[in-house]
Amino acid sequence: KAAAHDASCIFCKIIKGEIPSFKLLETAHAYSFLDIQPTAPGHTLIIPKYHGAKLTDIPDEYLADVLPMTKKLAKILDLDVAGQAGVGYNLLQNNGKIAHQEVPHVHFHLIPKRDEKSGLI
Ligand code: 5GP
Ligand code: ZN
Fold it and tell me: Which parts of the sequence belong to the HIT domain (predicted)?
């Protein structure tokens, strides 16, 4: 069985609590925390608790926790309120250096989009 963690990986260290993070949600197979260099307030990273650089490296049982967690976060962060204009979000996941991936542990970016005129910032 492949190792779930890589001792030198920054996101594996975050999962294990070896380096600090602003945690939002955690399940048996997924973990989410605020991005240290947010492109918007509330920019969140959702990661499987399994070390792998690309989406195809991650077993489905780990990925199965990622999207339900992302849905919960969209609600918690007030990005997905029925009938509310001026608010939304982008979900982004980079695979490979050529695709701007910097950290080689799969992560989904949840990036809030809020209209400045909405008064929600
Ligand atoms: P990538 O370009 O690989 O898709 O994005 C990596 C993301 O991880 C970047 O947005 C970067 O700010 C974030 N990041 C890198 N190191 C850390 C860290 O130690 N803590 C946190 N919270 N985010 C990090
Ligand atoms: Zn890792």
Answer: 10-120
> Among residues 85, 73, 12, which one has the least CA distance to residue 43?
73
Phi/psi zone of residue 94: left (φ > 0), alpha (ψ -120 to 50 degrees), beta? beta
ipTM above 0.90, yes or no: yes
Mutate to test the pocket of ligand 1, among 15, 21, 47, 103 (most ligand atoms within 8 A of CB): 103
Residues with CB under 6 A from ligand 1: 10, 21, 33-37, 45, 94, 100-103
For the chain, what are the domain ranges?
Answer: 10-118
For the CA of 105, the nearest ligand? 2
Model confidence over 6-42: pLDDT tens digits? 999 999 999 999 999 999 999 999 999 999 999 999 9
**Start-to-end Cα distance in the chain:** 46
Q: What is the CATH number of domain 10-118?
A: 3.30.428.10
- Is 107 annotated as catalytic? yes
CB atoms within 10 A of CB 89: 21
